[in-house]
Predict the 3D structure of the following.
Amino acid sequence: MSDASRTVHPIGIIGGGPAGLSAALWLKNLGFAPCIVEAGARPGGMQNLNFLPNDWVLGHVGLTGPQLVDRFVAHVEEVGVRLLRGLRPVQIDGAIGAFRLWLADDQGREQVETCAALVLATGTRYRAAEVLAGVPGFADLPADCLRYGPYAFDALAACADQRVLIVGGGDNAFENARLLIEAGASVDLVLRSPPRAQRYLRTLVEQAEAAGACHVHRDARLARLERGSASIAVTIASASGTATPTVDRIHVLAGYEPNLGVLDALPDGLRTALQRDADGYLSVDARLRTGVPGIYAAGDICNPAFPSVVSAIAQGALAAKTIELDLRDL
Ligand SMILES: Cc1cc2nc3c(=O)[nH]c(=O)nc-3n(C[C@H](O)[C@H](O)[C@H](O)COP(=O)(O)OP(=O)(O)OC[C@H]3O[C@@H](n4cnc5c(N)ncnc54)[C@H](O)[C@@H]3O)c2cc1C
């Protein structure tokens, strides 16, 4: 068969974040017909919630997450990638070379797509209210004093004269603490286990702690939250005793969970063949193959060593190259 007459295989990509968008671009350039299935109305994934400039993507200076997303989406649309919005798979069957996807929108309207291979790129979601659910008094707190995940970053200037309790010990919690301290807020940071944040951020927060600009509660847990007329009385139990700060708002920055809803669409046999790691993320080999021939995964759903836009983009590209290799003779 000549190159010109060879079959153009459709490839289904579930999730339109940086990993899915990148996989689509590379697949298109490699001669496939990629189709992105994005559950949300707007592709771009977690970057839509990055309200600050993203300083970590080479060549894109000063752009916020949504501005980066606009560029990514414009690029894939320009090369003619199909981008289906507001749809998610409700049933998947078949095998490499001929998967069938039943897609449904929020109203239950369905359409069917066929594809030779699948890329799972559904990313993660931030942990939210479940983190505080067992703390006595939590249920009585008004919603407007609670911020979860990305929303802890959306009104930093308004926190200048506020007292903020931050729950979490990773990069996001420490970055939030640093920015709030810079903005003039008073910060209490509650760490359940040793901090996982990068050293640079830890050093900045520790310097602020030494200067009396914040309190870090180590090896600590929230024992009680009590709603006052305009504030929250907090009881923190830690290795060094009990602290009782009064705060105006609580920011929960306690990590992420993989978005695995897509697995419910798979028949039992395929679902169990997809290996998961100890944290529940999808396990893949060095070429991003899952345990099922023809199903690949890319981006934060694979629990990368450093979840980020550039690693998601790199994995999207690698998944595409692996598909080209595996389907070369199909
Ligand atoms: C507030 C915030 C700030 C960040 N800042 C930075 C930064 O400055 N620099 C940086 O490099 N990284 C940053 N990150 C991390 C970065 O955004 C992620 O690592 C990256 O977006 C991961 O890309 P992804 O495509 O793997 O997943 P995601 O971005 O999570 O995209 C997954 C997509 O899949 C869709 N989806 C989920 N389930 C389904 C389904 N069943 N069917 C169809 N679609 C589905 C989702 O709607 C989503 O659009 C930040 C993250 C957050 C939350």
Helices lie at 18-29, 65-78, 171-183, 199-210, 268-273, 309-326. The chain has six helices and 19 strands. The mean pLDDT is 95.
